[in-house]
TrEMBL record:
Residues 264-413 form the DUF2399 domain. It comes from the Bacteria. The lineage of its organism: Bacteria, Bacillati, Actinomycetota, Actinomycetes, Kitasatosporales. Residues 42-248 form the Conserved hypothetical protein CHP02679 N terminus domain. This is TIGR02679 family protein. Transmembrane segments: none annotated.
Length: 425
């Protein structure tokens, strides 16, 4: 429903401005307008405390009599209304005169209702996106209730545009294979700078990417690069890396595997010169300490191992997808806590893997035999590879990092020198 404005009708504009247009009566006109905005009648007195001599003189000329003593100044609005009608200056009275002097008046209650309707419509792109992508429903609700969109935009029309562009970006994610963020922005939004740091679109989209990929909380430029990279958007090809031990298929990897030393692979290396061979099975861990211990313990005789270093980076995903395409199977282990489960689930959405000592039974066995670990904290999440695992964590209430079960992991990694399942891509 559109707000109903109080509009102007015919008045004698010259005489009206001579009568009520004096600055000394500005307070009177303002009080009358405020009453109109609230839908209140223009009757009864309005008062001005500590009135000046000029204000008193103007009121005396208006009413044709002294306004009385005391510091405050009081004028009855119905008296002014009657004066305007009888004089013919404003046959429709004071309300029409106020509109003629100050412009149309919109009732505040109706204006608020209209604004609320406009805000509801502004969130329509967000609602449609949440319906299409269930993983974004919680994020969408937080945007609605947290007030961030209003702070970034201020008005519904700008909010609708911002949310529409945010939905456009998130619908296009994740990007496979990864592309540069400016190139993606240019293709999708018509500007290479639309997703630059500090823009409202960047702020909202980055939070949506976190919800979409399960990226953990963090801050700083490196963290933001990793969040973008988790959806396949790259600020550069060198900042995204993955750790590997005893993979082969390039001269550099062969040399590192012969030495039994970990390799740090950048996304640039993996997109320009991927491995030409893939082992039948690759173990995946979450924490670098596991890979470092495996290299120290077994060196060149360790089974092939890839370390995510936390949330799967673009480099990690590029490597694992390449190995999977060429026949490798994956066994995954991570921290036994909610953050670890989220990382594992995010990886499982991208590449298939089976658990490597990473089930409810493995967790319960470790809890029984190891010293008590730190308490479990954070919000529960699911474990698609073993639906019983979240229940087991909640029952024990203890988090176990990979380092706590390092001996078990090392016992699996030392069983023979790696073999290859292919020689050409």
């Amino acid at each position: 429903m559109e707000p109903t404005p109080v509009t102007a009708v015919t008045v004698d504009d010259v005489r009206l401005r001579r009568l009520l247009g004096d600055p000394g009566l500005g307070w009177l006109v303002d009080r009358a307008r405020r009453r109109l905005e609230r839908g209140q009648p223009l009757t009864g007195p309005v008062s001005l405390s500590a009135a000046t001599a000029d204000q008193r003189a103007v009121v005396e000329r208006l009413l044709g009599r002294a306004p009385g003593g005391g510091r405050s100044l009081s004028v009855r609005l119905d008296a002014v209304d009657d004066l305007l009608r009888r004089s013919g200056i404003s046959p429709a009275g004071l309300a029409a005169a106020v509109v003629a002097l100050t412009g149309p008046v919109t009732l505040l209650d109706q204006a608020r209702a209209e604004e609320q309707r406009a805000w509801r419509e502004a969130y329509a792109p967000l609602d449609a996106l949440a319906d299409e992508v269930p993983a974004l429903q919680g994020w969408a609700e937080r945007l609605r209730s947290g007030g961030q969109v209003r702070r970034l935009t201020g008005v519904p029309t700008e909010a609708a545009d911002l949310l529409g562009r945010t939905a456009t970006v998130l619908r296009a994610l994740p990007v496979e294979p990864p592309v540069s963020l400016p190139a993606f922005s240019s293709r999708l939004l018509g500007s290479a700078h639309a997703l630059d740091e500090g823009t409202p679109l960047c702020t909202l989209t980055l939070s949506g990417v976190r919800a979409l990929t399960g990226s953990p909380d963090g801050s700083g430029a490196q963290w933001r690069r990793e969040v973008w990279a988790s959806a396949g958007l790259l600020r550069d090809e060198l900042s995204s890396t993955v750790l590997a031990l005893n993979l082969r298929g390039t001269p550099a990897l062969d040399w590192m595997a012969d030495a039994g030393e970990p390799a740090v692979l950048t996304l640039r290396q993996l997109t320009r010169c991927p491995p030409l061979s893939a082992p039948p099975t690759v173990r995946i861990c979450e924490n670098p300490a596991v890979l470092a211990a495996a290299a120290d313990t077994y060196g060149a005789h360790c089974a092939p191992l890839v370390c995510l270093q936390g949330q799967p980076s673009a480099a990690a995903l590029a490597l694992l997808r390449h190995l999977h395409t060429h026949g490798a199977r994956f066994r995954y282990h991570g921290d036994f806590d909610w953050g670890g489960l989220r990382i594992a689930a995010a990886l499982l959405r991208r590449v298939p893997w089976s658990p490597w000592r990473y089930t409810a039974a493995d967790y319960r066995a470790a809890v029984r035999t190891l010293p008590a670990g730190p308490p479990l904290a954070g919000a529960r999440c699911d474990a698609p590879w073993d639906p019983e695992l979240p229940e087991a964590l909640e029952q024990s209430g203890v988090r176990l990092e990979e380092e706590a079960v390092l001996n078990d992991l090392l016992s699996d990694l030392g069983r023979g020198r790696p073999t290859l399942s292919m020689s050409t891509p």
